[in-house]
TrEMBL record:
<dbReference type="Pfam" id="PF14716">
    <property type="entry name" value="HHH_8"/>
</dbReference>
<dbReference type="InterPro" id="IPR001357">
    <property type="entry name" value="BRCT_dom"/>
</dbReference>
<dbReference type="InterPro" id="IPR037160">
    <property type="entry name" value="DNA_Pol_thumb_sf"/>
</dbReference>
<feature type="active site" description="Nucleophile; Schiff-base intermediate with DNA; for 5'-dRP lyase activity">
    <location>
        <position position="244"/>
    </location>
</feature>
<dbReference type="InterPro" id="IPR027421">
    <property type="entry name" value="DNA_pol_lamdba_lyase_dom_sf"/>
</dbReference>
<keyword id="KW-0234">DNA repair</keyword>
<keyword id="KW-0237">DNA synthesis</keyword>
<comment type="similarity">
    <text>Belongs to the DNA polymerase type-X family.</text>
</comment>
<dbReference type="InterPro" id="IPR010996">
    <property type="entry name" value="HHH_MUS81"/>
</dbReference>
<dbReference type="InterPro" id="IPR043519">
    <property type="entry name" value="NT_sf"/>
</dbReference>
<dbReference type="InterPro" id="IPR029398">
    <property type="entry name" value="PolB_thumb"/>
</dbReference>
<dbReference type="InterPro" id="IPR018944">
    <property type="entry name" value="DNA_pol_lambd_fingers_domain"/>
</dbReference>
<protein>
    <recommendedName>
        <fullName>DNA polymerase</fullName>
        <ecNumber>2.7.7.7</ecNumber>
    </recommendedName>
</protein>
<dbReference type="GO" id="GO:0005634">
    <property type="term" value="C:nucleus"/>
</dbReference>
<dbReference type="GO" id="GO:0003887">
    <property type="term" value="F:DNA-directed DNA polymerase activity"/>
</dbReference>
<keyword id="KW-0479">Metal-binding</keyword>
<dbReference type="InterPro" id="IPR002054">
    <property type="entry name" value="DNA-dir_DNA_pol_X"/>
</dbReference>
Amino acid sequence: MDPHKRPLLQNKSRIFENCYIYILPVALGKKRMSLFQTQITNGGGICVSKLSATKCNVTHIVLEDSVVKDSERCVRLLSSINVDTNTAVKIVGTQWISKCLKECVCLDTKEFELSVEKITDKVNTKSNSKPLNEDRDPGTVKNDVADFATCTVEDSPPKKLKPAVSEEDVCLQSSSKPRENSECNHLVIAELQKLANAFRSTGDQWRAYGYEKAISAIKAYGSEITSYEEAVSIPGVGSKIAAKVSEFLASGHLRKVDEICGSERSQVVELFTKVWGVGPATAQSWFQQGFRTLEDLKANPNLTKQQKIGLKHFDDIQDRMPRQEVEQIAAVVETAALSIEPKLNVELCGSYRRGRTTCGDVDILITKQDNIHTDILPCLLQQLKESGFVTDDLVNIEVSRNQKKYLGICRLPGENQKHRRLDIFVVPESEYATALMHYTGSALFNRSIRLVAAHKGMSLSEHCLLAGVVREGKEMLNDGYIVPTPTEKSIFGLLGIEYRPPEEREHRL
DNA sequence: GAACAATGATG
DNA sequence: CATCAT
DNA sequence: GTTC
Ligand SMILES: Cc1cn([C@H]2C[C@H](O)[C@@H](COP(=O)(O)OP(=O)(O)OP(=O)(O)O)O2)c(=O)[nH]c1=O
Ligand SMILES: [Mg+2]
């Protein structure tokens, strides 16, 4: 072959040389997608099918033109897909490809580009506070597909019960982002959640973890998923779950759900694990021993104290409570705490602090000055029990042992009040920020931020942030050293992560 | 094929 | 130690 | 389950 014979064609076919191009499969039909892909490949470029969390050598991200115009939507989509807007990635519309092909040049005109400035601009100027979607059907005792208000906080920002130790977490009015979470996404999520629950209750924790991450990613995803391609493009959603999304899109149904969740074994085991104190091991053991219903369990002689309590309050505990009730419960605890020691700082954490419209329990963080040595928890609990507020203990509360964690059950005074789960944590001032982070969650958020820490030779717990940690697999080979963390912001900073207010910690990092 | 967070309480 | 919890 |  004489290369000189075809110089034109050569040139023409190399217009995308050195281009690593990712096409966002949103608002793009399958055929148009693959058309672009072959065009790019023929042009010497490389199509990336999935953005990797770490090494993105991607040079261009192509969006459908209508998407590029809606820069607000761009922000949502790109951020949910972990695009680092600080890198030199060119974000362009599909027109760019067309024009490049037409002119046989790899042009890089700004007219196609969505500049980073534009993005951050939009983010900052945007201040929508939309009403929260509260969509909970009271009466669903079964599959606990928890409510999910797409974290828009408008009514009650995390209210400090008492100002003291810190300040950065007081004024978190910052409007968070997307609403308009889609109808269909929710339906798929409900199905996937069934599978996640089933896997967890049989002890398949890693499979369940995979599902949870994917579910969380889809919830955080900005728009309606319409294809397999779009689904796999979401980090955390792999081929298997994307196929399930696709199947659901086509049929409104997942065969896997029938297959897995349909069996008596699965249903019973799942029911049992909903009892507080019952996990996969006991649930399955009980099933094998022939137990089938909660009634059966009451006749089971091997129930632990915790499980008896869990059984007694089974229905109430399944339920989630409105924010206002959380506030009422917290007020009771705060009053009692301050009567013991007025210098205590009492603060609501958990899903309440993240702005959720309903909460599964009440998480209260009490910070005490380092010079206070009174056993706070025993005193506090004695009071709360004498007043009849706390009705059951899920952990033994003992004097002398300087206990920090209380798990129990309480009920507000008055008629028709349900029993609610109550968690109280008492920590010294020096651990305030890490404890606040921990108990604010979410659990997935904690796990992902701790993963970041680990990869930086650090370790984050509710007690402290350690640096200089050397690991060999799981084992920590040394003790590292404690890095002072006066505020939540300082923790983010030390980990090299941009600060996120509680409302934006619903999903993983 | 390995890793997937880190810790406390119970028995 | 396994189990269950946050 | 997904990611590296
Ligand atoms: C369950 C769990 C919680 N946590 C932290 C983060 C949670 O936000 C915090 C409180 O735990 P939870 O009260 O179990 O969770 P939550 O408050 O976020 O949600 P819910 O409305 O159902 O109560 O503890 C972990 O770090 N790891 C875990 O496995
Ligand atoms: Mg909670």
